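<context>
A single protein, sequence plus fold
<entry> Chain with its tokenised backbone below
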Amino acid sequence: MFVRNGEHYSLFHSLLESITQEMARELKIWEYWKAFADAFERENEAYLNSQKYANTETVKAAKKHCHQRYSALSFQIRAYRKSFVPEIAEAANRVYFALTPYKGVMVKNYAETIAMVLDLTEKLQTEKYAADVETLGLTNEVVELRQSAERFQTEVSIRANERLTRTYRVNMVQIRPVVEKSFADLADLITASYLTAAYMDRDAEKAARIERIIDRMNAEILRTIETVTRRSARAKGKTAEDAPEEPIEPEETVS
């Protein structure tokens, strides 16, 4: 059975939080705690990279089309402000005022550009501005501008998913064994520290504190095992009790 990347990230995040730096220093295992923390930080970076997207040609084309639509609309509104027909000039001035907060849309990042254009077009379609937009004959232009922003948003989402499957998985495959090995080393030393405190030093208070750490770690590991077992059983059309006992990643528990 296999622990998904999100589950793996969540598990080892919880394991790292189970022992403080102060406790690791007290037990004289801080270097191993630090190695585990550094390895997990690399997993954290790989996991968060799933929020990024690739700057592909199709995304650039969608962005360009959105910018062109915005520029055309803005140009027409500015031109209508100089109209000799009072009704048109007045309508253009009111609509131009609505555009004022969005003047920087051309130089914003992808997310901000999309958000600003969607917000602008929604505003121009409200009762406050719809009549003026219609007076200027720009109703369809506003609709087409909004559609261009929606297509831009779709392209960005598609590229994000492609990057997730292409880059994020590769990074996670590389880092997961490193995280698991560094945790196994730390877990072995925590177990040794418990045995020393309980049976050699006869320090019941210290042994109890270490035991609480071990219990927290084991609880997190067992919770993940149960989640994976239930998912595997559902996939096979069986109950969790019927699921075969086979190795589950990660196999390490703290003894």
